[in-house]
UniProtKB/TrEMBL annotation:
Origin species: Chenopodium quinoa
Chain spans, region Disordered: 237-262
Pfam families: Dimer_Tnp_hAT
Gene Ontology MF terms in the entry: protein dimerization activity
Protein name, entry field: HAT C-terminal dimerisation domain-containing protein
Entry's transmembrane regions: none
Residue ranges annotated for the HAT C-terminal dimerisation domain, each copy included: 127-195
SUPFAM superfamilies, alphabetized: Ribonuclease H-like (SSF53098)
Amino acid sequence: MGELYEKMDCMIGEINDVMKNNKHHADKEKMNEILLSRWEKLNIPMHCLGFALNPFFYDTNYLQSPAPGGVPRRAPNYDREVVQGVIKAFDKIGEDEEERRVLRQQLATFQAKGGIFGTLSAKVDAVTMSPISWWSTYGAETPELAEIVVKVLSHPITSSSEKSVWSTYSYIHNIKRNRLNYLRVDKLVFMHTNIRLISRFTASYKDGPYRKCDFNPETTYLDDSATRLEDSRWREGLDSLEGGDDDANKIPESKRQRFPDS
């Protein structure tokens, strides 16, 4: 997470370098517009926070080295977009204004290299150690911020959640359900995904027959998850019928087919 923002900046500069002597040089501005438009859509405050919390990006040698495209490098605290993103991230992370104030104050101490952050060993290790290891070593003076740092910087960058959304889409709109217009499908995907997230806070999700019904939501097997959930409900219904008379315990053929082992 801590390197995504910087890599995006470098990618734009590297493309500009490649396009200088390229036969498609005239399309450079158009390509930049496409890249920036995509970045504006993808960029979130957490990316800015991860960039601002990486000690490597405050290293003097790094800041003095030329960036791709010939643009001078700037420390995260001198980038307006990054600062705005950090403030927005703290607003979401902090439970109250006092906690947000503490986080901002500790961030200022880190960026100004005050206290233990200004020691020679901290500056050297900022280049050689991973950001998480560095904060685990030197984050004692800013415990609240250090706790946030570990959570943010250890967050992986993956497209699994995006694939999960497309899996949900295929579950709602497929060959058998192809008469829905795209606006209705979009709303159903939104509702289905958020209802599943809300269900994880219920007691039945943590314990009972429906425990973790979406057992592996990061895969494409959403249909299989739904089938398992439905089967669990049928089995619960069968258990409630035990102990009754023969007619009450007689299972309809359509239901029996679901449980060949019953």
